[in-house]
Each structure stands twice: as C-alpha cells, then as structure tokens.
Amino acid sequence: MNKWIKKDLQHIWHPYTQMKDCQKFAPILISKAKGVKLYDHKNKFYYDTISSWWCNVHGHGHPKIKEAIKKQLNSLEHVLFAGFTHKPAIALADKIISLTPKNLTKVFFSDNGSTAVEVALKMSFQYWRNNGKKKKTKFVSLDRGYHGDTVGAMSVSGVDLFNKGFSALFFPSYKVPSPYCYRCPIGQKKENCNTECINSLEKLLKEKGHEICAIILEPLVMAAGGMIIYPKTYLKKAAALAKKYDVHLILDEVATGFGRTGKMFAAEHVGVKPDFMCLSKGITSGYLPLGLTLTTEKIYRAFYADYTKKKTFYHGHTYTANPLACSAAVASLEIFKEEKTLSRIGKIIPLLHKELMKMHALPFVGDVRTIGMVGAIELVKDKKKKTPFSFQERIGMQIYRQGLKRNILLRPLGNIVYLFLPLAIKENELVSILSRCHKVIEKIKPWDAD
To answer: Is 3 exposed, middle or buried (0-12, 13-18, 19+ CB in 10 A)?
Structure first.
C-alpha cells in the first residue's frame, strides 16, 4: 500500500464515509487533474462525472482561474470583512448582481452552501422581527429537499439518510410533499399532471402563513434528495403562493447555479424573482470555498437603522469574502462570457439527453431524468412495481466500484446513478462517459451488490 494512503487511514476521517470500508477499499490517492479527468498516483485517469461534488464548472486546471489566484496572492491573501473591503469582493458583487434576477441588489458573503442557506434563514427570521411580526418563526420546505449539513440547514431538509441521526437538534419546520413525478405523492400520471401536488403547500400557507417566514426550495432539481427534476410549473406556482401569502421565497441555487440546468441560474427557466438566492459550489468553479446570499433592497432596509435600534444582522465568518476566492469567482464568471460556455453546452445537451434516455431499456432502470448537463437514472428491482433496492443491498457501492474499473467516477445517491458534468466537457468525452456508464449499469448484479 502506498505510504500516503497508509497515513490517510491512520489519521483522516472522510465525509459521508463508513471508515471501516476503507480498510478493504482504501481511498484513491489523486495526484493531479486536468480538464474533466482526475489522475491517481499510478497515473490512471477517471472521468470526473460529478464535478468533484458538483462544484467544478470549467474543468480542472483552467489557466485563467489559476492566474487570477496567483495574481491576487501577490497583493492580498485575506483581510477581515467587517469595516474593511477589497476590490475582488466589490467586482464579484457587481458581476453577480448583473446576472441574477433584477430584484436582488444586495450580496452577503459566507464560506459554503450550508452557510449561504443559514444566512438566508436568519435574515428572513430577523426581517419579520424587525418589522414587528414576531409570530413568523417557521419555515416550509420539501420533504425530500436538502439544504446543507449545518443545524439550521438540516432543519429545513428532509433527507433522512443524511440527517436523521441529528433530528433532536433541529428546530421545528413544516414539510410538504415533493413534486417527485416518478413517485407522484398524489398518484397522478405524468400525462394528466397539472402539478396538483402544489395544493398541499397552498393549504399549509392558507392555514399557517401568519407564522411562516419563508419557503425554501431547490429550483427544478432536488439534488441530494435523488436528483429529482420537477416541473417548471411547480416552481412558478410556488413563487406565486409565496407572494400571495406574504412569505419569503428562498431559492437554494447552490447546486443548480452557474449553468448546470442550461441557464446561468435555474430561476431563469420561469422568470422567478426570489427574496433570497443562495449560491456556492460552482461560483469559483471549485477552486476555493465561497458562499453568497443575495437579497432585495426591501429586506436590506429592514436592518438599516441606528445602532441603538438593535436591527443589525449579527452574522459572519472568518473567511467571509476571502480575496483569493473572490478573484477565482470573478475569473470564472469571465470565462462564461469569453468561452460562450452556455451557448457551447447548448449544442451537446441534446446528445446527453438522447443517450441517457436509451438507458430506459436496461433491466433495472426505472426512470431517467434530465435537465441541462444533469442526468439521473433511478434503479429499481421491479420496473412495474418501482421497487427500490434496499439500503442493505448497497447497489450504489457496486456502481461506484465498477465505474472506477472503467475509468469513470460515479457516486450514486442510493438507487440513483447521476451525471453532474463539468461544463468544460467535449463531445468525444461525453460519448465516452455515456458508453462507460451504460456498461456499468448493464452489468448490475443485485444479488452481489458488495
């Protein structure tokens, strides 16, 4: 065993990992990366089909982002962001405001997706208190949604596998059924669907709107909940209900932002104007940690007062608006423009969707879902009954290991095999990935999931 891997097993505790498994299947030592490929210490490559946990946008080792970080490092690596500012943060705020819905005019910096969500929750909560509506203390989310691993973010999430063990820590919140079309919560058929599943949300808002601060949603793609891609009409109706019942709309675009759905932000698909937008992951193309929470002038003004009025928003992080991260983010946004990224992927998205749909014919494929550069394949034991594989069968582990043998990184969400592809991908690389993925799924042996 490589000496570095031995040191890893001796000292490191990995996220979302049962460490006992690592004694038999040790972590892979990655030594370099370029474009959409990762290389281990033996120089074997793996296609990074999940964008290194959904953050790599422009490929590994992009020269413009590397140069931006190096240049910034020569002048300022970090400074506190309370009472001080710097050009990279100002430039980033200016650029991001020009790209997001026009009602969003203020930017609050943080470190990652979970903290971007925490900021939105706390701002919404305090907004209502600052305006004298102290009964508004609750939040509404979808029962399969996922918004992060901090306590507040977990409280408005519904992914039991990830957070059930911490449920005693959560603050109370309301959950409504998710618009999960393959497993419709109201038993409706796709061809007859008029997003009637939204009715449970409207009923709740009608009865409890006076005590609800906000609705939080992942727009169009519920990522960690199973890459559930839901109808645009649901998002549009949810936004209308938020406005009707005077509650905030928080859009968690941590995973969906920066071109993943074919547009810069998923909200653009229906022209939704949220009260808060949470951003992270792809904002720096995965080069450095950074989070943003965008909000409106109206919400900002509710905190703007003399210090004695006690309306200040007391929240911050040591690495808030880190200059290196902000410089990487500015460079990433410039690449979108210079390389015409959205236009280029628009030409290969049809190929991705067409080839993924062919996988419907495979024995254990129950559903195939696509939007932009995201694709999901739901595996089931029985197609007619839509019976999922059990947790004990660990079908995802089989997919992961078989994928590695074929030079492809697949990290399923339980029964869901998904592709969350870097936007830098070329057509020939996409064809190769799809072919390898097809072979992995074709060879599934449910009785031998380990």
So the answer is: exposed
The rounded distance, in Å, linking the Cα atoms of 153 and 110 is 14
8 A C-beta contact, residue 366 and residue 383: yes
Closest CA to 100 of 273, 219, 261: 273
Backbone angles phi, psi at 418, to 5 degrees: -135, 155
Pairing of strands 212-217, 138-142: parallel
For residue 90, with 0-12 CB atoms within 10 Å meaning exposed, 13-18 middle and 19 or more buried, which class applies? Answer: middle
Domains recognised in the chain with CATH numbers? 3-58+341-448 (3.90.1150.10), 66-338 (3.40.640.10)
- Whether 319 and 78 have beta carbons less than 8 Å apart is answered as yes
Give the length of the chain.
450
Query: For position 448, what pLDDT does the model report?
Result: 56
Regions in the chain scoring below 70 on pLDDT: 447-450
> Which tokens hold the place of 338?
């210079």
Q: How many CB atoms lie within 10 A of CB 320?
A: 20
The C-alpha atoms of residue 99 and residue 257 are separated, in whole angstroms, by 11
3-class DSSP state for residue 252? strand
Element (DSSP H or E) covering residue 328? helix 323-338
pLDDT digits (tens, 9 = 90+) for 154-204: 999 997 888 999 999 999 999 999 999 999 999 988 878 889 999 999 999
Which pTM value belongs to this model? 0.96
Pairing of strands 276-279, 248-252: parallel
Q: Around Cβ 109, how many Cβ atoms within 10 Å?
A: 23
